[in-house]
Design goal:
The chain is 46% helix and 13% strand. It is an alpha+beta fold. The relative contact order is 0.16.
Length: 373
């Protein structure tokens, strides 16, 4: 949950936003809009006649334009597509389709016809590409080292920090650990395949150049780690009610200043704070300037480490703040970021190499897709 200057009272927990490389690829709007363009013109599309559904419940509101939904995807002989005579199971399509459309289902809304068509095309396109890569990997005898797969899985899981967060991700994404490992295995197989086929290399010189050309990315702004105790003022509070809360805040601030140790302040926060960080002793973790509402931000960044503030008024109530740590602004050195840069450049090179390989394999492949029109 990220604290912004617009949402301090609603959410006082500030945590770093981590961009995770999902082994189960998600579809963004840009991908949806461009997916159809990526279909191979040589692909033979086998149309199906929609089956008549007797006794089906009528949907009172289909879409805003009242377009009928697309016919159900039934595949052919249990497959959604065939690549060089090898079938791709309909269940693989359905599992991905269910994840893509879960937002619409949760809101009990039909998927708009055009978006639905793009979802379907995009999923099948991805499955066909994966089949082409798997067949090529088998042809050139690519294998996966179990030790390397375990290492990849452990690194991936570690990004979630705790088992609880990882398990929550699995539940929300409708994945299992085996499913994650299967997707990581595909990624490893692709990486090994591209290397064996002489994929694009990343040199130390390229890494250094990227660092030199993108200095702004590695500037770290001044940050403060603080704890706070929030006493909320009721919505539409009268001056008397505000004064009453202020008096309570003054009393707690005076107590905090008598013993300003971190442990003592954390105990007071657990006892008195009405914000969501109370169970953690009011700990907001590190935040940069202009991430909090103005009054809170100005107070926190003007304080010394270990200092406890007088009550600070914001539109959410009265805050008593204690600064725990500070980080001065700096530029991250090359040695600290070179591995990250190298991964970024390798991923970029692999994406290009993958697309080149896919186009080459498609050109000589026989692909049949069993989606209804």
């Amino acid at each position: 949950m990220r604290i912004t200057s617009l949402m301090l009272g609603a959410s006082m927990l500030l945590s770093a936003s981590v961009s995770l490389a999902d082994p189960a690829p998600k579809l963004n709007l840009k991908t949806i809009k461009t997916a159809k363009k990526g279909l191979n013109p040589k692909v033979k599309r086998i149309a199906q006649k929609p089956a008549t559904q007797t006794g089906a419940k009528r949907v009172s509101k289909v879409t805003k334009s009242n377009e009928p939904p697309l016919p159900p995807v039934k595949g052919k002989n249990g497959d959604i597509a065939s690549v060089n005579g090898q079938g791709i199971k309909l269940t693989e399509f359905q599992n991905k389709y269910d994840r893509f459309t879960q937002t619409f289902k949760a809101r009990k809304r039909p998927v708009p016809r055009k978006i639905d068509a793009r979802y379907r095309d995009s999923i099948v396109k991805r499955l066909v590409e994966e089949a082409l890569i798997a067949q090529e990997a088998e042809r050139v005898k690519i294998s996966i080292d179990p030790v390397m797969l375990k290492k990849e899985f452990d690194q991936y899981k570690a990004m979630f920090k705790t088992d609880e967060r990882f398990n929550s991700y699995l539940k929300n994404a409708k994945l299992t650990e085996d499913g994650v490992k299967a997707n990581l295995s595909k990624n490893l197989k692709l990486r090994n395949l591209l290397e064996k086929l002489g994929g694009k290399k990343v040199t130390d010189k390229q890494v250094q150049k990227y660092f030199d050309d993108n200095q702004a990315k590695y500037k770290v702004r001044e940050q403060v780690r603080a704890r706070h105790i929030l006493l909320k003022t009721p919505k539409g509070a009268t001056p008397a009610q505000i004064a009453e809360v202020k008096a309570k805040a003054d009393k707690i601030a005076a107590e905090a200043k008598k013993n300003s140790s971190d442990d003592a302040f954390a105990a007071l926060a657990k006892k008195h704070s009405e914000g969501p960080t109370a169970p953690r002793g009011g700990d907001l973790s590190f935040f940069a300037r202009n991430r909090m509402v103005k009054e809170f931000d100005q107070a926190a960044f003007s304080m010394k480490i270990g200092q406890v503030s007088d009550p600070v008024k914001t539109r959410f109530g009265w805050h008593i703040i204690r600064v725990v740590e500070r980080k001065e602004p700096r530029t991250r050195p090359f040695d600290e970021v070179k591995e990250s840069i190298s991964r970024t450049l390798k991923n970029r090179a692999n994406r290009t190499a993958r697309q080149d390989l896919i186009e080459k394999l498609k050109a000589k492949a026989k692909v049949e897709i069993y989606l209804p029109k």
